[in-house]
């Protein structure tokens, strides 16, 4: 497993790296002190997951996340920030982060974030989940009534399509959506038309009785739903799918 740490404070990176090494002894750690260096590393070194600070010398706030996800749409990015405001957490989720770890978090939270994201899930601290639910006024019931029972899983368990009452195509769409891909890039990955993927996304929101992708992400984090590891993607394929999406939308 390769983990890329993008933070301009060398002391924080060193401490963060030591903590990750304690949790995952065989991990390979990559370091970047600027956003430009982080983007280059994401394209060249093929990390499996990125931990990104929002306050960088050449990338302020959520712009840093935008630039990194634009370069590598399918790369899992977890934001690590001292900013714990709900509007910042919500904004990062809307910009397709797969998790948010406050810098005040415990080592256990870091471990949970890595395990969740690499298993196809989302990590949010309990306080953020509660705050986001209040902010976006989500319904209490996370799933619509259907012919499929919603099972209770252990936090480490992987859910599959029948568990969630989804077709295989809907399930794959959900997995890519959680990974952070926009609909056009998902269409390129799945070999489908963009309009078909948009229909799948609409079905997913209706299935879980939700209105927006952010609500879906919060629900997945709250329930500990993990969708499994998607096929590895290389930077050139990422770039091609992004360009394809922009061309289709033009």
TrEMBL record:
Please state every residue range assigned to the domain named Response regulatory: 2-118
Record-linked CDD domains: LuxR_C_like, REC_NarL-like
Residue ranges, compositional bias (Basic and acidic residues): 235-250
Alphabetical keyword list: DNA-binding, Phosphoprotein
Q: Which residues form the HTH luxR-type domain?
A: 159-224
Q: Residues where 4-aspartylphosphate occurs?
A: 53
Task: Extract the Pfam families matched here.
Answer: GerE, Response_reg
In this chain, the stretch annotated as Disordered covers: 229-250
**InterPro entries (UniProt xref):** CheY-like_superfamily, EvgA-like, NreC/VraR/RcsB-like_REC, Sig_transdc_resp-reg_C-effctor, Sig_transdc_resp-reg_receiver, Tscrpt_reg_LuxR_C, WH-like_DNA-bd_sf
Matching PANTHER family: HTH-TYPE TRANSCRIPTIONAL REGULATOR YHJB-RELATED
- Put simply, this protein is called Response regulator transcription factor
């Amino acid at each position: 497993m390769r983990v890329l740490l993008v933070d301009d404070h060398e002391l924080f990176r060193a401490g963060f790296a030591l903590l990750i090494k304690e949790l995952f002894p065989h991990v390979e750690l990559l370091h970047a002190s600027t956003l430009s260096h982080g983007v280059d590393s994401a394209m060249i070194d093929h990390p499996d997951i990125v931990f990104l600070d929002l306050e960088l010398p050449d990338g302020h706030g959520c712009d840093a996340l935008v630039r990194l996800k634009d370069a590598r749409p399918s790369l899992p990015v977890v934001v690590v920030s001292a900013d714990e405001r709900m509007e910042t957490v919500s904004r990062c989720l809307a910009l397709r982060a797969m998790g948010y770890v406050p810098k005040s978090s415990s080592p256990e939270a870091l471990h949970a974030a890595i395990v969740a994201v690499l298993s196809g899930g989302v990590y949010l601290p309990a306080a953020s989940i509660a705050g986001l639910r209040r902010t976006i006024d989500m319904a209490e019931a996370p799933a619509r009534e259907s012919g499929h029972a919603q099972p209770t899983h252990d936090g480490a368990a992987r859910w599959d399509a029948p568990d969630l009452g989804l077709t295989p195509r809907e399930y794959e769409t959900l997995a890519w959506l959680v990974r952070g891909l926009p609909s056009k890039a998902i269409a390129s990955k799945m070999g489908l038309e963009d309009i078909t993927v948009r229909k799948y996304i609409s079905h997913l929101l209706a299935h879980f009785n939700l209105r927006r992708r952010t609500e879906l992400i919060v629900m997945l984090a709250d329930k500990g739903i993990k969708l499994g590891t998607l096929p590895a993607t290389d930077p050139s394929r990422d770039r091609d799918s992004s360009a394809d999406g922009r061309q289709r939308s033009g």
